[in-house]
Amino acid sequence: MARVLLTRTAVQGVPFERALNDLAAERGMPKIQVDFAPMQLPRTVAPEYSLFSLVSLAAEGAFLWATFTSANAVRSCAELFGTSFAWALRDGGTRIACVGSATARALREIGLEPHFMPEKQDALGMLAEFPTEGANPELGIPESLRKPQNTPESAALGWDDMLSAQVSVLVFEGTNARPTLREGLVGLGFRAVRAVVYEMVPATASVLEASVLEAGEISCVNARELIAGTGSNSAAVDVIVATAPSRLKELVGENPNPERTPPVAAIGSTTARMCEDLGLRHRTAASPTPEALALAAIELLHSA
């Protein structure tokens, strides 16, 4: 039986497992075993005055758009701000942009309907299709807004300046988010104001105890042993399905042996670049959907 390791929780991985085995059945292949290895878990940041100030600004109409590039960001906003979050964005007339269908579902669950979702579901896809109505191509961005920490209350512009600008985009993201979207928005003529609402932490024993592992899930340590072919459960993994560059790196380490590491089905271009940096064989899914990831995994199994 072929074996695939997915860097997600069992709950998150159900659609992929279903799509993978549906596709295998269509092609006359035996059932494929899927192991779930949540190498990292999202953790909402501690409440900060600056974050609540940004939401207050949104309620006053300071932001033309708010962007969300993951369901994790949406859930963390709900955890931090409660039901007032959706109200603030709606009351301020903030339009909602999201990266893909999973993020859109999370937004609807908290009462926000996306106004924009790109056909190509990644940051570059968002930028390629992002509505530019209301943008100002001559507008620069203060250096302070490029810093990795959350923007202070004044956003380095002053409250009144922010309210009058009407060309600002509030970018909700995690600590390890690449600047692709923010820098691209600046290039389109928007002010990009970063709001860090979660961080990804390794799913180690201190974060995820073995007692709470769901059926089919394995710990970080066991996942690494599985990839290395060591430990008591050392049946070979045929394909790794990597759902983020940081999760892949957490799994294989800084200097993996390309000859001994299984090929990788990468969820998108940034994960594919990580594969290239690590020297790993890989295939990039056409989109981050379960079906596209399943197809990439099947193609790698066929080429083995």
Topology:
Layout (H helix, E strand, L loop, with lengths): L2 E4 L3 H17 L6 E4 L3 E5 L4 H11 L3 E6 L2 H11 L2 H8 L3 E4 L2 H9 L13 H7 L29 H7 L2 E7 L5 H9 L2 E12 L17 H9 L10 E4 L2 H8 L11 E3 L2 H10 L3 E3 L5 H14 L1
Parallel strand pairs: 1-2, 1-8, 4-5, 4-6, 6-7, 8-9, 9-10
Antiparallel strand pairs: 3-7
Helix pairs in contact: 1-12, 2-4, 3-5, 6-8, 10-11
Distance between the termini: 14 Å
Describe the largest sheet: 5 strands, parallel
Please report which band the strand proportion falls in: under 5%, 5-15%, 15-25%, 25-35%, 35-45% or over 45%.
15-25%
The number of strands is 10
Briefly note the structural class of the backbone. Answer: alpha/beta
Task: Report low-confidence residues grouped into runs of 5 or more.
Answer: 140-157
Instruction: Work out the helix count.
Output: 12
Provide an overview of this structure.
The protein has a five-stranded parallel beta sheet with strand order 2-1-8-9-10, with helices on both faces. It has a five-stranded mixed beta sheet with strand order 3-7-6-4-5. The longest helix is centred in the first third of the chain and has 17 residues. Strand 1, helix 1 and strand 2 form a beta-alpha-beta unit. The protein starts with a strand and ends with a helix. About 6% of the residues have low confidence. The chain is built from twelve helices and ten strands. By secondary structure, the protein is an alpha/beta fold.
